[in-house]
Amino acid sequence: MGQFIYLDNAATTKTAPEVVEAMLPYYTEKFGNPSSVYGFASANKEAITAQRDIIADALGAKSNEIYFTAGGSEADNWALKATAEAYAEKGKHIITTKIEHHAILHTGEYLESKGFDVTYLDVDEDGIVRLEDLKEAIRPDTILISVMYANNEIGSIQPIKEIGRIAHEHNILFHTDAVQAFGQVPINVDECHIDMLSASGHKLNGPKGIGFLYIRTGVKIRSFVHGGAQERKRRAGTENVPGIVGLGAAVSRAVRTMEERSAKESALRDYMIERVLEEIPHCRLNGHRTKRLPNNVNFSFRFIEGESLLIMLDMKGICASSGSACTSGSLDPSHVLLAIGLPHEIAHGSLRLTLSDETTKEDIDYVIGNLKEIVEHLRKMSPLYEDFIKKNS
Amino acid sequence: MYSEKVMDHFQNPRNVGEIDGASGVGTVGNAKCGDIMRMYLDIDENHIIRDVKFKTFGCGAAVATSSMATELVKGKTIEEALKVTNKAVMEALDGLPPVKVHCSLLAEEAIHAALWDYAEKNGIKIEGLEKPKSDIHEDEEEEEEAY
């Protein structure tokens, strides 16, 4: 990247040049409203359909099962709230996990305030849902299971196929928040018995402000935004045509490059994990060692605090995060790190580095070199480290 | 998000370290909230703070407020040091973001805790010094969530 090393691709990604190029005409000469009658505008309807086809193909879904939204959070809100409303007569119990994104967790809390019962499953120390726990949590009134495909902080990939099978056997709807996983790992909605899936454009080198919800044919889910007849009357509002075209271009690119990109990223990821665990004492890897996103690395460094670490990395031109970007606004440590059983002070000392296909081995070496110095510097300042040394000397 | 002074004190913290056989040591904060400060004071027979050192586990603001607090009490009498409030620390740093104000409270508490330890060790009473709270977060209320 030149001036800085961007290792925060789980927060957002750089929009790919081919994506920007695909979008531009839809801001200029192709500006028309797809619902209009005249040719230059109604052609945009076909452009949208073409993107729907691309996305459906990527998931093994049908084109008319893809509904565009303003992003991942909207898709998550829609999936949960509208299902709850539509299936409330069947039951009022929803199962999710303690490591979901806040778009799911806070929606779950909202539904609880409206009389729904939500079970938040624990995860194991690697951040993976135990299937036994899931089976035990199922009740006759369970209407929905929502488990994220891969975690945004620690990258752990969930046993989605098994979860989908369990949901299917019990005739319960299955939603997955695939915002981090879509475009990173292959996903097939039929193989995994997924009924609904949320995804976002800007996590896969597409534009911000666009995402989609996959809704399997036959799922009874109400409109989320009322108004015009867009998105088969389920999500009103004039289509974000440039965003949709950008999302389609980003998905094409992600599918085309996935194999090579994942291989490259996971090799660099493993190189980084091995070196850091080897060369920096009192450090742990958060998340599963192998069942993790190809670009995700998450460490906890004992005796130091994450924000200090981030500022010092920033001064060296390294962009990273501690917990998710949404978490850093509050003072609480990440709910995901607490859910995998970390004590508070170790959760506060976490660092997430998420690679892209532009990341090089030189970048990783530069980061590790600086990381070693910064961790040492902060530990010298830490009363927790002082206590630890005194206790063990 | 931080002023230049905060960044300076974070990058080049003054008086980091320990004092062997310190006159008073105070540790405040808790790891749950992500910040712990420890202050060491070396106080002479005339009640003047000859030297001060700190160690802090915490965010950029926690390090900077600790550093600034040590600067403000160094060479001062106990009475003068007691007047170094969190407000004084914040002003000296050209302000802190609202979510970081508690760091300056922690710095004030750390000084008080070290002075309290000194008073206890020497069996004296310092006028105007109350037993410091070990956890400054205990009075804070949870933010209410609105739907």
From TrEMBL, chain A:
Location relative to the cell: Cytoplasm
GO molecular function, one term: metal ion binding
Keyword entries, A-Z: 2Fe-2S, Cytoplasm, Iron, Iron-sulfur, Metal-binding, Pyridoxal phosphate, Transferase
Modified residues (N6-(pyridoxal phosphate)lysine): 203
Residues of the Aminotransferase class V domain: 5-367
Residues holding [2Fe-2S] cluster: 326
Pathway: Cofactor biosynthesis; iron-sulfur cluster biosynthesis
Residues the record marks as active site: 326 (cysteine persulfide intermediate)
HAMAP family hit by this protein: Cys_desulf_IscS (MF_00331)
Quaternary context: Homodimer. Forms a heterotetramer with IscU, interacts with other sulfur acceptors.
Family listed: Belongs to the class-V pyridoxal-phosphate-dependent aminotransferase family. NifS/IscS subfamily.
NCBIfam families membership: FeS_nifS (TIGR03402), PRK02948.1 (NF002806)
Name this protein carries in UniProt: Cysteine desulfurase IscS
Gene for this chain: nifS
TrEMBL record, chain B:
InterPro entries documented for this protein: NIF_FeS_clus_asmbl_NifU-like, NIF_FeS_clus_asmbl_NifU_N
Residues annotated as signal peptide: none
CDD domains linked to this entry: IscU_like
GO MF: iron ion binding; iron-sulfur cluster binding
GO terms (BP aspect): iron-sulfur cluster assembly
Span of domain NIF system FeS cluster assembly NifU N-terminal: 1-122
SUPFAM superfamilies named in the record: SufE/NifU
Pfam families the UniProt entry points to: NifU_N
Name recorded for this polypeptide: Fe-S cluster assembly scaffold protein NifU
Organism name: Extibacter muris
